[in-house]
Amino acid sequence: xxxxxxxxxxxxxxxxxxxxxxxxxxxxxxxxxxxxxxxxxxxxxxxxxxxxxxxxxxxxxxxxxxxxxxxxxxxxxxxxxxxxxxxxxxxxxxxxxxxxxxxxxxxxxxxxxxxxxxxxxxxxxxxxxxxxxxxxxxxxxxxxxxxx
Amino acid sequence: xxxxxxxxxxxxxxxxxxxxxxxxxxxxxxxxxxxxxxxxxxxxxxxxxxxxxxxxxxxxxxxxxxxxxxxxxxxxxxxxxxxxxxxxxxxxxxxxxxxxxxxxxxxxxxxxxxxxxxxxxxxxxxxxxxxxxxxxxxxxxxxxxxxxxxxxxxxxxxxxxxxx
Lengths: 148, 164
Prior knowledge:
- The complex is a heterodimer.
- By secondary structure, chain A is α/β, with parallel strands linked by helices.
- Chain A has helices at residues 2-10, 17-37, 93-105, 124-136; strands spanning 41-47, 65-72, 78-83, 87-90, 114-118, 142-144.
- Helices cover 38% and strands 22% of the residues of chain A.
- In chain A, helix 3 runs parallel beside helix 4.
- Chain A is elongated.
- By secondary structure, chain B is α/β, with parallel strands linked by helices.
- Chain B has two domains: 2-40; 62-162, Nucleotidyltransferase, domain 5 (2-Layer Sandwich), CATH 3.30.420.
- Strand 1 of chain A pairs antiparallel with strand 7 of chain B, so a sheet runs across the interface.
């Protein structure tokens, strides 16, 4: 009986653990690293401003919705929004979005042109926020003005 | 012949495939990740957030990524980088016909890129730091406009609340 059990122990087949552990570690590292490489970045598509030379044509205020962004504070830390030269919204981008959605509710088409006109020192993040508000209000024809 | 066959059976010489497969997998993963980053030549910038931003497939286009990096001391000395190369956008660009326009080196680079292949397939991606002034962004936009490029993508960060 003893000799039989010894023989059984000798021929006991084991799966090759080394290679399995190798592959498992590789997969572990791969899936640990992958989330950090997913950057959660998105894109807003737009049209470029056109250089109109030294004597630019005056903007057609009546035709398009004009969003002016004025820099406030040190190096444009803050911002002030003026809609269509009349409506001052401070730095309330939610208010801007609501106003633009109001225009849409009044029957303006998504293709109605919007002009974002920031001053030179306005920071990029405020310009993107204004752009974001216009896209959220489902406008599609959004343009940028040459800075003043 | 019989001897040779016997010797082979006894020695059982063969390649050890396990470490080879290990290394091949490692290399595949490495090159997959590296090629993803090389394709876009991105710089480390803090992107502005936008709720309406969409994740888009850029692989079908000829992409040119223009990075605008915030200056070290102030937001006023921003740097424009394309494919790891710093570009001057303050100088004028002289067209082949002798007339001048804006954009300097960047316009020259974009004109060259546009002439090398299908212009309609050219995609300009802007990656600007959230704190750079619009003045710098507009200069880059005007340079692209001077090169005859009309539309482009502005890279933004999708807020955590919008991430799926």
